[in-house]
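Lay summary. Proteins are chains of building blocks that fold into shapes, and those shapes determine what they do. In this project we predict the shape from the chain. Here is one chain we studied, written as its sequence of building blocks.
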Amino acid sequence: MTFRLMTQNDIPAYQTLLHNAYQATLQLGIHFAAATVNQKQIADHIESNAVYLYEKQGKLISTLTIRFPWGNNPGPYGLPHLGWFATDPQYKGQGYGHALWDFVEQQILIKQLRLPAATLGTAANHPWLATLYINKGYKPIGQADLTSDHTTLYFEKIFNYKNYTEWKKRNHKQ
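And here is the predicted shape, written in a compact code that computers can read:
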């Protein structure tokens, strides 16, 4: 198994993975951009975000993106924002997505980037994603009506309380 950053060469396989993984969400009537993204949009996406892949024997299994506050699609709270989490449906329930998520949190967000916290968002009407994120330690912090088909719930996970407190002081002055 391999965890690594996505490259331009991965775009076709990545697009297929996203479209396949997000079909179930489309069937629920929830439209996430990843469900219908084209290759040009993916190329733009990987230009300003860190897209991590989980590969097994050369096959793309799972993916998770870190959107940065300075990128082309920042999260709403001034922190890195996780998104486009997907696992190939034929590998669903085997722990590959969780392994990638844990790698990105522990090795990238905490050890490498030393982030105080990260955020993510999901559809309020999705039947299980909010529970998944809560079980991973994320706490609800807000919501917004960004599209006509769902309300977005926002979550945050604090990795380092001391640094988080300092970040809040600097970034939320009145």
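What the prediction tells us: The chain has six helices and seven strands.
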